[in-house]
């Protein structure tokens, strides 16, 4: 009973602290606030919360709670969020999955295998629903194919002469290859190959730094796949690869580990400058039969159009957002495009 009373008192003080922060933030937004000794900054908020609740709260939850109030005081977070609680569904989560929930999910699946080494990061993750696969690519060159929680195939790409980092990956459904881009090459990995000398191909060199990639999903089941890529100069590339390319365009003069090299100049690769800054993300939407690309460019921030626009000079559908767009997605049910700046 005493603990319950103490907690209620601590909670009342915490909610009072939050109210003061909201008033302070509202005044700051309207330009009516003048700093004084009662100002609540992050350090003061952290110390007060720690004093009230002790070790029951985690640093990341305190930080997230403070950030939410500072960014949008009108939509105040629930007090339970200071303890990392977001949904009643989370009560039944197994002890192995009891971590701070970021999204409202009842359970998280975890892959116990470590697919990247220390000081490496995942740069791309793609689900392949038809084959029940997940593909991940790390910055330093580790590409892994998962089936549910099990690692099926894994390959570490390390080029002695090409130290460029991997910047993105996808899956080619017709050719059944994993595709990834580095800053200067395109990698095509035959992840199921049992032949030690023909695991895949490398297309090089690329003049500009490639930053993102996606597969263009078509209805036909021909032995070819099309990919879109964006670079650091604002260009978007269109590249179609067929099974014949693997036979006709190999370079006999050079090999990179078990990968055969193909000259990028031998490919018909239309490109068009759509942005005046880096292309941060590119995505093809099969239901719309359109592609989207975004950039931190404030003028040509987001483009949504047919891939045919990459081969002609007709105007494209685009709009501007101050400081550009970093991410976007399409919701088929609501029929809306959502962007994040």
Automatic annotation (TrEMBL):
Acyltransferase in keyword set: no
Membrane-spanning segments: none
Keyword Repeat among record annotations: yes
UniProt keyword terms in alphabetical order: Repeat
Protein name, per record: WDR64 protein
Natural source organism: Loxia curvirostra
Gene: Wdr64_0
């Amino acid at each position: 009973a005493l603990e319950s009373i103490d907690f209620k008192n601590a909670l009342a003080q915490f909610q009072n602290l939050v109210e003061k922060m909201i008033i302070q933030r509202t005044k700051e937004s309207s330009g009516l606030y003048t700093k004084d000794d009662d100002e609540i900054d992050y350090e003061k908020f952290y110390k007060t919360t720690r004093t009230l609740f002790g070790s029951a709260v985690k640093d990341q939850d305190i930080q997230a709670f403070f950030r939410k109030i500072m960014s949008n005081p009108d939509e105040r977070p629930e007090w339970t969020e200071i303890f990392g609680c977001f949904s009643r569904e989370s009560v039944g989560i197994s002890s192995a999955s009891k971590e701070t929930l970021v999204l409202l999910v009842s359970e998280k699946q975890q892959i116990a295998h470590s697919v990247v080494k220390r000081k490496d990061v995942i740069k791309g993750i793609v689900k392949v629903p038809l084959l029940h696969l997940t593909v991940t690519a790390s910055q330093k060159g580790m590409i892994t194919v998962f089936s549910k929680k099990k690692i099926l195939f894994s390959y570490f790409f390390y080029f002695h002469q090409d130290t460029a980092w991997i910047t993105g990956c996808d899956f080619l459904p017709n050719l059944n290859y994993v595709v990834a881009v580095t800053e200067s090459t395109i990698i095509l990995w035959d992840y199921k190959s049992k032949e030690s000398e023909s695991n895949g191909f490398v297309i090089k060199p690329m003049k500009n730094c490639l930053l993102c990639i996606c597969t263009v999903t078509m209805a036909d089941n021909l032995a070819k796949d099309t990919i879109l890529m964006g670079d650091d100069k604002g260009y978007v590339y269109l590249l179609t690869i067929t099974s014949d390319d693997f036979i006709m365009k190999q370079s006999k003069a050079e090999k990179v580990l078990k990968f055969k090299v193909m000259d990028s100049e031998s490919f018909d690769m239309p490109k068009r400058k759509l942005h005046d800054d880096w292309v941060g993300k590119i995505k093809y939407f099969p239901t719309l039969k359109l592609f989207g690309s975004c950039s931190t460019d404030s003028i040509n921030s987001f483009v949504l159009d047919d891939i045919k626009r990459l081969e002609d000079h007709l105007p494209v559908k685009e709009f501007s957002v101050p400081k550009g767009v970093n991410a976007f997605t399409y919701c088929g049910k609501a029929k809306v495009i959502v962007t994040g700046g």
